[in-house]
Write the structure tokens for this entry.
Amino acid sequence: MGKESILSVQYFIYFGIMGVFLPYFNLYCYHLGFSGTQIGSLSAVRSLVMILLPMFWAALADRFNARRAIFIGCCFCSAASWSLFLFTRRYEPMLLITVIYAIFYAPLIAFLEAFTMDALGGRKKHYGRMRAWGSVAFITVVLILGRLLETRSLDLVIWLILGGSALQALVACGLPPIVASRREGFLQGVRLLLNRKVFVFLLCGFMMLLSHGAYYAFFSIHLAALGFGKSFIGLCWAVASTAEIWAMFNSGRIFQRFSFQTVLLVSFCVAALRWTGLLLSRSSWALLALQVLHAFTYGTFHMASILYMDKLAPEATKTLGQAVNNAMTYGFGLMVGFFLSGILYEEYGAGTMFGFSIATALAGGAIFTLFLCTQRKSRV
């Protein structure tokens, strides 16, 4: 099996697991009787670990050229850590297990993105076609699992994630080493990575994922509170993934016509529109239609972020660049988003929670726009 095929399988398994975790793990915790604050805290502490650990693992990988070995080791250790959820249903032990699991789970996606950028070489604008296999897995899992959970216990969630994690670890063993050419040393690469353009991009990415905290942590719970069943919840997540797949399979066309910066700006605007719709909508058809916007709020934003960071990062710190990006967005951004969403949902309800998401997405887009305008003026 070639490099690109193995990486496509890795994306398929990784996001297949996410198709179990994102829609249903918080529902599992809700089923156990956890409060909104406890659910938000579990998600937040997982994200907190994902802020620092990817950068630690990535720095080791880039410094010692050990990306493959570290990736395989983290895959096996994350699977072993997840198995501990089989032995408890109490909040305190689950909080500790979440931390242990996150330590090894944290770098996986950043390493995958760095592997993929190296493997694609001059065809990086077609990154979405490879990444789309992850979305295919996600939609398949949420559709099937939504049906299964109508008649089966939510305990199935724990077993499925464990099985998927073990499979990912085994497949990772077949991943060949991919070594990028380097024009500078690691420490010089780190210095080049620390610049104002990267800082502003990471700040805005943080705000975008902060606005997503309510969606990822409480969208399924919000739908359940409105009276919708598990099948409809699964369908909603599946529609979002279908839209995401469309965007990714068209990544080549999108990035041939529009710059990374333009795509990022459009994604911010669409995010504010989507959260406004969730704030106001109660109709099943309206909620499904809003999920189509996931093509922009996640699909195009994610692709542009990965490609833009790859463009900004020096050769010697490609893994670290992706890890920092992932840590600031899916780590720090979602951590704060989960925690604040848990508080806002419990204290004030879904309306205030989604209102916060709208304001955050608009603020992130405004900051990015102002920075781009400042850059253009400085060139004149």
Q: What stands out?
A: The chain has a mean pLDDT of 89.
